[in-house]
Amino acid sequence: MNDPIRKMKRLRTTTLISGVAVLFVSGIWSLQRIPDPTSLVLRLSPAHAAEPDRSDNSAQRSTEINQDAFLAVLWHDPSPVVEQEPRSQEALAPEPLHVQLVAIIEDNGRHQAALYDEREDRIIVVADGERLRDHDVHVTAGAVEFIRDGRSQHLLLHPNRTQARGDQS
Length: 169
Known about the structure:
By secondary structure, the protein is α+β, with helices and mostly antiparallel strands. The protein has a domain at 99-168: Roll (SH3 type barrels), CATH 2.30.30. It contains four helices and seven strands. The longest helix has 27 residues, at 4-30. It starts with a helix and ends with a helix.
């Protein structure tokens, strides 16, 4: 009774019979007649079939498709972007200089500033009264001032010392 070979043969036979039965049922199901897809007439339950038809052209109405149902807006297209007219160069704010003050040098009574340009990754040396990218440069002993179109930008060599001096006065 506990023979493993007999159990294996029984299991194989049971599996084979079950597989053939599943294949047979699947074949029968796949060969069934498919309903005609062009038929748009709905089949009513017996309770609804007993009610009298109140319209004269119900057969025509059941096959007609209401085209207005498909006019719904499914996607709202955002309004087109209106391009603004470009501003004149005078109306634009001046582009800030992306420089850092490294040192201020005095050579023969004339101040020069060593500036690190972040964008170009290089050191620029400018003297008092020169121009740097449309900015007038004024160099003093402790600061550099850039002026363009009446707007100025200051770089201090020692900001903490200047603040401390201002607090003592």
